[in-house]
Amino acid sequence: MSPIDLSPFQQAVTSRTQRLRQLGQTTKIFGWFCTYTPIEIIHAAGFLPIRISGGTTRIEKANTLVPSFICPYLRACLERAMGGQYDYLSGIVTGYTCDAACGMINIWEENIPAELFHTIPLPYHTNDPATTFYRRTLGELTEGLEAVGGTVSDTSLARSLDLFGEIRALMHELYELRYDNRLPLSGREFYTVLEACFGLPPEEYRPLLTTLVKSAREGNTSHRRGIPILVSGSLVEEMRIYDVIEATGGRTAADDLCTGYRFIDPADGSGPTPMDRLIDRYQRRFPCPARSVVGERTGPIKRLIERSGARGVVFIFQKFCTPHLADYPALSEDLKGADIPVLLVEMEETGINEGQLTTRLEGFFEMIGP
Q: Least CB-packed of 114, 183, 253, 329 within 10 Å?
């Protein structure tokens, strides 16, 4: 049991739907799928950005609108929306990273009542023409948000950048403590802390995280047992996976996840204006398979492995996730060529097969050795 009080974060996750329904009566809430979504602009407009959660659920209604080869996360999100679980949303704003997510927002717009559905085209490059294009697309987002009652100014955007920048910097501190094995949190506890951020107003989340980081920084050093690994994939919502990793002899020491490190790195950007600062931050983001070329991610992931002391990589993919599955062959070969063992796990909408995952992880950790 962790000596740190995690109850505010756990409660934020378990009471999320009820709390957001109540908040939605006075505040417009916009959902997002992808960490390339510039949530600072949504917040600067006076609205609350929240990550849409899919979780594990039986897919029935969504199968009448989308084929079964769409990733389980997006189908589960649609299933919940069709069941009324996202009736507090005023709309969706998300970055165009994969074809499935881009197409899914159109399905929502046709079937789920809301005020605004907006996809942000993203450039692949960071040169001057790409930056000019990106600035124009962010201007279109601003216009869309203002058309539904928001107001974005340099002052409000700077405040939002400061707020989320501080939150991400605090999360970086937690990661650094975990890299040094000085953070007395299990994998489930660590990612519950991060998950709470995706459904709380940032003004409420920041003081909670500040208190937690202070407690972790000042607490007694606590080394957790297990073979350190890096977990890579899109997003992992099923916390049982971290329990199984630990029960079979592992320890999640680092990650390359949309619900983890790719959300926080870098913490902030720089530039002469708030919009320049925002553009710089998202253009320098930790690389995602949907926005990078083959081989581009090997170096950054190796650096995380070196910093954290990870002795292997467990890839956990949403089934049918084309960007990650396309990125995997070259990346895994690069890692194996550097004597870094890898294991691939795919998730269905019904969740993990715990018995099968246990057997595979036991074999993986036995191969790595003590």
A: 329
Helix (H, G, I), strand (E, B) or coil at 91: strand
Q: Which two tokens stand for residue 354?
A: 């715990």
For the segment 12-28, the average pLDDT, to the nearest whole number, is: 96
Q: Tens of pLDDT along 87-119? A: 999 999 999 888 888 889 999 999 999 999 999
d(CA 119, CA 106): 9
The three-class DSSP label of residue 348 is strand
3-state secondary structure of 314: strand
Q: Strand order in 116-120's β-sheet?
A: 48-51, 29-32, 89-95, 116-120
For residue 307, what are its two tokens?
């910093």
- Whether 225 contacts 308, CB under 8 Å: no
Identity of the amino acid at 98: C
DSSP 8-state assignment for residue 198: T
pLDDT tens for each residue of 196-219 = 999 999 999 999 999 999 999 987
Peptide bond into 266 cis (omega under 30): yes
Please name the residues in contact with 148: beta carbons below 8 A apart, sequence gap of 6 or more: 28, 90, 91, 115, 116
Q: Give residue 363's identity as a one-letter amino acid code.
A: G
| Confidence tier at 1 by pLDDT (50, 70, 90) | very low
Identify which of 45, 2, 23, 4 has the alpha carbon closest to the alpha carbon of residue 199: 23
Distance separating alpha carbons of residues 246 and 123, to the nearest angstrom: 39
Count, residues in the chain: 370
